[in-house]
Design brief:
DNA polymerase, domain 1; alpha+beta; OB fold (Dihydrolipoamide Acetyltransferase, E2P); five-stranded mixed barrel; nucleotide-binding; Helicase, Ruva Protein, domain 3; NA-bd_OB-fold; globular
């Protein structure tokens, strides 16, 4: 298994990046929040997991080891594959996901595109004894908001990529922008927008 990659970032997409390792560009699928923290030309170090299918080898990358462990754990639930697991981490930080599962918070889990009430109940049932309690670790800062608002486009693209309409994404970005602290990260702002859309 490829457990991590480190090297210069060649390109960054909405939810992926190409990282050069030993002269080979590896396509790494990530959450929009992690992708937003990567810059072409800068060095990246990502915890990774390789998902092997009959027709493909897909590499998923994470800001830290905790995200990777949660990604792998949620896939033990029947019906949860890597894309849905990644969507869960796009909406909820690992500790927020642990809290939702341990508290049986169905509403929080159904904010993830692709998870309905029955799916959320199954996740709680199958993971409650495995996922553990929130660790209380500080969130990883992946990208500063800065004085301008380049995050608006990134958050808007991420929301549309996760399945919301452009209008819904616009409305959520405007709502979040009204209360956004100057030092908020793109990942934090994306989660705030997803919470807004989940109301």
């Amino acid at each position: 298994m490829i457990a991590s990659v480190r090297g210069p970032v060649l390109s960054v997409g909405l939810d992926s990046a190409v990282v050069e390792v030993g002269g080979v560009g590896l396509l790494v699928h990530t959450t929009p929040g992690t992708a937003a923290g990567l810059r072409p030309g800068s060095a990246a170090s990502l915890a990774t997991t390789l998902v092997v299918r009959e027709e493909s080898l897909t590499l998923y990358g994470f800001a830290d080891e905790d995200e990777r462990q949660v990604f792998e754990l949620v896939q033990t639930v029947s019906g949860v594959g890597p894309r849905l697991a990644l969507a869960m981490l796009a909406v909820h930080a690992p500790d927020a996901l642990r809290r939702a599962v341990s508290d049986g918070d169905i509403h929080a889990l159904t904010k993830v595109p692709g998870i309905g009430k029955k799916g959320a109940e199954r996740i709680v049932l199958e993971l409650r004894d495995k996922i553990g309690l929130p660790t209380g670790a500080a969130p990883v800062v992946v990208s500063g908001n800065g004085s301008g608002a380049p995050w608006r486009g990134q958050v808007h693209e991420a929301l549309v990529g996760l399945g919301w309409s452009a209008k819904q994404a616009d409305d959520a970005v405007e709502t979040v922008a009204a209360d956004a602290p100057a030092d908020a990260t793109v990942a934090t702002l994306l989660r705030a927008a997803l919470r807004e859309l989940g109301r």
